[in-house]
## 1
Amino acid sequence: MTTQATPGDGDAKARQFVTARIGGQLFGLSIDAVNEVFVPEGITPVPLSAPEIEGVLNLRGRIVTMIDLRRLLHLGSETAASMAVGIESQGDAFGLMIDDVGDVLMLGDAERDTNPSNLDEDWARFVNGVYRLQEELLLLLDVERVLAGVGQGRAA
Amino acid sequence: MDDLLREFLTETSESLDVVDIELLKLETDPNNRDILNSIFRLVHTIKGTCGFIGLVRLANLAHAAETLMDEFRNGRPVGGEAVGLILSSIDRIKDILAAIERNDGVEPEGSDEDLVALLEAEVARELPDIAFGAAPLAVEAPAPVPAPPAEERSLAPGEVSLDELERIFRQTEIEITLPARQVAPDKEAAPAQKRSDTPTADAGSVATQTIRVNVSTLEQLMTMVSELVLTRNQLLEIARRTEDGDYKVSLQRLSNVTGELQDVVMRTRMQPVGNAWQKLPRIVRDLAQELGKQIELEQYGADTELDRQLLDQIKDPLTHMVRNSADHGLETPETRRRAGKPEKGTIRLSAYHEGGHVIIEISDDGRGLDIARIKSKAIANGLCTEAEAARMSEAQLFRYIFHAGFSTAEAVTSVSGRGVGMDVVRCNIEAIGGTVDLRSKAGQGTTFIIKIPLTLAIVPALIVEASGERFALPQSVVLELVHIRPGSEHSIRRINGRPVLCLREQLLPIVELGGALGLREAGAKDALAAPASELIAVMNVGTLQFGVVVDAVSHTEEIVVKPLAAMLRHVAMISGSTILGDGRVIMIVDPNGLAQHAAAGSDKLGHTDAAHGAQAAHGDPKTSLLLLRAGPQGIKAVPLSLVTRLEELQAQDIEELDGRPVVQYRGALIPLVYAHAQVERRESGRQPLLIFSDGPRTIGLVVDEIVDIVETDLDFQLASGAPDVVGAAIINGIATEVLDVGHFMAAAFGDWSEVSRPVGTRHHRLLLVDDNLFYRSMLEPLLKGNGYAVTACRTGGEALELLNSRHDFVAVVSSIGMGEPAAGELDGFSLAEAIRNAPGRADLPIIGLATQSGPDLIERGRRVGFTDYVAKSDRSGLIAALNEFIRNDHREAA
């Protein structure tokens, strides 16, 4: 059992991550990528779009495209996702639908493990390393790869 | 690129546009010192800044031009030649600037010695001593003598000699003292007066009242105002519901201010339409010289305001139309004189507002459109019959000039007459929700009338409901709303299962909005099966009218268009989104997408009869199809495996051989075939080209656009009567015609015989064995198109395995002369033998496909057990053989 890096103990390579739970699994998103966390309301579906696109909503006058992470990661969805992480990429605003948002963690680069080789291929596309926390594993979600992956699984 | 350079680029290109206009004025009014000075100042500034930033090439050129300009200032008469020279220098400067912008701030390689030499030669040219009487400068400051090369080092561009510096100081002094003199008021008053009496684009510098604001700041402002408006609407909604009136006055005030703010912010997006035609005087001047005509360009209403975004989009169409007017609208001076008209032709541009639209008219007093020639051309192009043409009104006939490939110019000039113009103009204008029309009178001239909405950011829309969701339909394309009830005068009928709307004398195709958007689940009730009461919005897109069935119509609203994220922009039926008053986002339906849907007739409702026939197809491997557009209607497809390569055809590479178009491809000439009679024959630029190869034979199939590549169960719904189409299948929910590559091969080489195809029964499964991918890919759709289910494989071994694993094959179609089989593999003969030797397969028909015929081959074929054999290219023979043998053996099974 390794101990966690103490925040701010001079380790310059430590970064902050927003943690989020999706279908029971804990994920971490780099805090630089996250603009805000909000409660999605009034989502309008976009006809004929990729299945991972939940729809769009109006967030203070901006059109935000909502991505259903559970569908993208092939996780079951017994309840509706209740929160969303707001990110921005190439001038467009996106919301990643999650079940719950957790603490912000300071994690050192040195502690990060690479993806286990038997990680599901669908997940390996979006996951950029693993942290072993005391309670459970935290998978780092690569936001850009998530966005690039939307609509790609459609042909399969 | 650093900010300084970017600033310089924007500023300079603006200054250059002004110089263009001023120079033209100077040409007609050579003694106007105000103009001369203002041009000189501009060129001087450009030169100075270039030297400062280190753009050597530009500075060099600007310097040479400035020297010549300075001569004019010093009293040299202004001649057309010299002005032409300066104009071409300005053009070169523009080219270099554009290159700098592209290269991220680096000056392009190259030399301007040619122009510089010409400019210097012009300066050095001795002129007869003409004194510029009114110019005191001419006396005080003699023309700069070329610096004596003896001791002094030569000057770097941008540097000035001491003499010159001194002279500039002297001039500056004069300019400063000028206001004290009598001349001063004139000088100040002149530009102001000019503005008021000429409606031309204001070229004078009155820039002090404006500041430069980044466009993105304006967009942001716009977004925030929209949000403010939404919030206001919500507040008003709440206020309506409550009795408490204390805050109502304040709320009313807030509401008014918000409205005014919205107006003002909208106005920041507006620009005078004159900005779009700023370059036209120059173009007309150049054209007039080139064509030997005298042309006057009149401009009215240049200050009419229009959304910035729209302005950009009408620039090209406007330029094109003005060129057209100059080229074949106006006659040559002699012709005009003979017709009793003034030698100088006039092109008049005018712009004005009319009911939420901007109208731009381009008129000329030329010869007018030749109605007889349009008529004969329309008939020759197959656009209408002679009888139809005779019945048409002039206005209807005129509109043919907007058709693709239609030009009535007798000769193609470098300017126009290639027939690629007016249809593009129409498309560009329609793309921004505008319309274009024309009036013409023989001998008196032609007027084009462009009508465009004030802005694209806010469009009037009809809010409708379909499958429980609300959608916005742009109102510009909605002609009328029709309510169908039992016993009402309009009705929904079915033609061959497809619903159509009988509206007065017209039969219009119908699409159901929910269905077209994929919202109606398969198996849901067929809304049009028994139409009790339907709401239909009749829409007009391009030349197609069609009905859109909606569940409810809510209201009309001016909506603020919000673009969707990049990953949603490819969605065919959706063009954008908007936020309604209640804060909810709704989708704006793309009328063009709906029109395609209507034109393709792929509404799923129409296919219910055909659908159940498709059962046998499940479990078939997927076929990769290349989707493309060719001709006016719908999507077409070809099996991707048949396509050797995708290329881009350069228009100028097309050659003619024996009257047929050919192109050089990899060292050989290949024939070009157009995938549809109405595929655009582009005269310039590129066009997608599909290369198909079968052994030594290669053709190029020209199409309009490559749309997509999809993997799909190739499941033919309808066989086709058309020779160039194998059949129609639903691909991504859109009826798609699968092109028959064989037909195009035949069209190019003339030996792939034509086929008429009876439709077989879908439950018959064939095993197709051919080691040649080309034949396999070609035959598979053919067989499927004739109603057979097909399993294809490459080798005899695979065929035997397949025959052992499933037992529903009714026949085997196998190539006889399969190439050299690999060790241990079966060729066609061995395969037939193996099949015949297996128990229970004695009767299985085996059709042999022979690449070359020969009695010994046939004899050998019969011996080993082929039921029949046909030549590989004889596709009708193959189908006939299959029909014959399968009828004999398996008909009862169907």
Note: Chain B has a mean pLDDT of 74.
## 2
Amino acid sequence: MIRTLKTAALVLTVAILLPGLANAAGYPNKTITFICPYSAGGGGDTSSRMIAKLAGDIMGVKINVENKTGGGATIGIGAVSKAKPDGYTVGFVSTSPITIRPHMMKAPYHPLNDLTYISQFVASNQPLVVKADSPFKSLQDVISYAKANPGKLKWSTSVQRGGPHVAVEAMFKADGAKATFVPFKGGSKVLAALLGGTIDVAMISEGNKATLDGQTRILAEGTPMKNPVTPGAPILTDAGYPIAPAIFFGIAGPAGLPKEVLDKWDEVMAKVVKSEEFKALAAARKWTLDFAGHAEFTKTVKRDYMAAKTTIADIGMK
Amino acid sequence: MDLILEGLSLSLTLESLLAISIGVAAGQILGAIPGLTASMAVALLIPYSFYFSPWIGIPMLLGMFKGSFFGASTTAILIRTPGTPAAAATVLDGYPLAQKGKGAKAMKMALYSSVFGDTFSDICLIFFASLLALVALSFGPAEYTVLIVLALGSLGMLSSRPAWKGVVAMLMGVTIGMIGLDPITATERLTFGNPELEEGIGLIPMLIGFLAVSEVFRQMDDSTDELSGRAINFSSKREDNRVSWPEFRGCIPVLFRSSMLGTIIGAMPGLGATVAAFIAYGEARRTSKKPEEFGKGSLEGIAAPEAANNAVSGSNLIPLLAFGIPGDIAAALILGAFMIQGINVGPLAFSQNPVPLYAIYGALILANLVNLALGFGLVRVSRFVFKVPRRMLLASVLIIASAGSYALRGSIFDIQLVFIFGVLGFIMMRYGFPTVPLLIGFILMPLLEENLRTVLLLASTYDEGILFVFKRPAFLAMTALLISIASYIGWRRRRHRRAELPTTDS
């Protein structure tokens, strides 16, 4: 009896001490929670799961993806911002809930003060497209038409009040043109509306493939990244318009992550984006792999956050 | 011809048959668990699909989607719990039939209808993809509006007596459906500043709470003796456990109409399987010779939504293959899987490299056969599973309902919603409020609002204002259809009334 108790006590002690011992072994040594603020199946979710698998394999720990959706992705990101800053809770972030929407709503976090930006792994193009048989041959054609016919030009983007919406709205405002934004839920519905003639112009990432398929024509690019399908398409800011926000997928954690954690992720993510698996996924989804480590990613976020702040106040979007 | 054979030889192999079987079986099981959808399962598998050969991975995904629709129906029929929202309309007649001990008959009818709808839409996909895609693309917000009005018209006849209870239920559904962001201005409505409500009430927690949990609450009222009995009684009579040929033959017109509706709705990006199932249900009831049986266990009432929701899953691929536009999240995932494997889909695929397309066609048809075969197995298994005492089943339904709704968004709030809607459903059942109007108000009215308001927004950009819709051929065709159906109903009613007159005299 005594012996059994002794054994039990020993086992218990070891069980209590083991995690403590493991903790000393450096980051990471236990399961990491990866919060995805979007629901299963979308681009955010697919890339989160791919990263969880690949980064987990490299680091030798399990990375669990948790979908916490709602509030236009702000609920999931809010949960990341409130986690303990030990590197064991990180999450997926993308442009809209970080650099754009906090200027128009009360987000449960401050993008610059409550989060640490770990790395950016994808940047996508946002081409401004018209149907292949459209009379608009250049960005100037679109602007002139919108100026001459106030409110008659119909356009859309995949997310209402996302980066592209702000960028195109600011473009029209800057030239004193007036056009009508027609909301649809998601890029593929916008593309269908464009091809079906319901709208005239769209800024959607789907525009690249549709142009390759001969369905659309690219007139401009809404992000700072040159358009690979139509390299001559002017970037909005180069054409003299107020803003062309980067459309990114990245990883963030709560504010105050230790340097050890950031260095580890920089090293691991550089490998992940070079892996065959991730390249295949990116090629499939027509993402451009654009890796940026902690320092550079933080700079991008700060730049776009401040630019969007001014622009959104100027054009009076709410 | 050589290309077709080459394509088929890719997908009709022993490996792909095995892959399809695994996919269908997994789909049927996942479909039966509320909250776990096939889309979610596929999303989980995408990181691994890279390691499969394309002609194992893709048939498996296709099988999974097809299997999940039937799996979802079995729980809808037996325990009033639609495994996916698309099976919600199957509850309306499937559950009453199961309560009469004819659960096996209902499940088999659902299985035949699912496979029928699947096969129908696959054939349409193979032979008329480009034509149907053109039709679908000519549908804009104006045409969607007419289509939904058409659906509301035929579903409106489902309203029970007294009429005011139906109206109240409908208005409640509309109000719940309005919670969230305004579809045009994206400002918050009825959210009371709660960010959890910003994206609206989820369809899954709402359906599970309103249909399944409310039924659990109702049964908890029963005596202890009753609760110790078997969860679901299956009649031992042979004819109650199978669908006879005359019964099936009676449903064939409904099957054709519903499959056609499902195929057309599936080809349009933006409506989806749940909507198709309800529209087909309404149409089946409108055209049925025995409309009074609907809601009480009509076989036609099972055939219609089941054929329609499965037909959507095939025709979803139509805009995908023709334009590269995925019709819904399932199609988007399949697109992702295709492209990871380096298979281009879209308008150029037919001319550039059609072989993979033929292989997909082969896999689709094969998956239907496998679905039929494995479906019989699922019917058998579920008869066995539901022999447990009723009180144990009720408890497990509550647990599965909570876990399923949590799994979807990782939100405790959704579990709370399940129980709120459970209580609401229970109270409504107690006081004789009908279920269907609330579901229609919740599912169709937000779509009507979104499309109608988009039309009004578009009207402001035309010189002729709202009259711009008459320049759209698809709108004219839809309106003509609406008017002819409405006048046919009016004419039939008048004739019906005249025929009734002598009896009222005597």
Note: The mean pLDDT of chain B is 86.
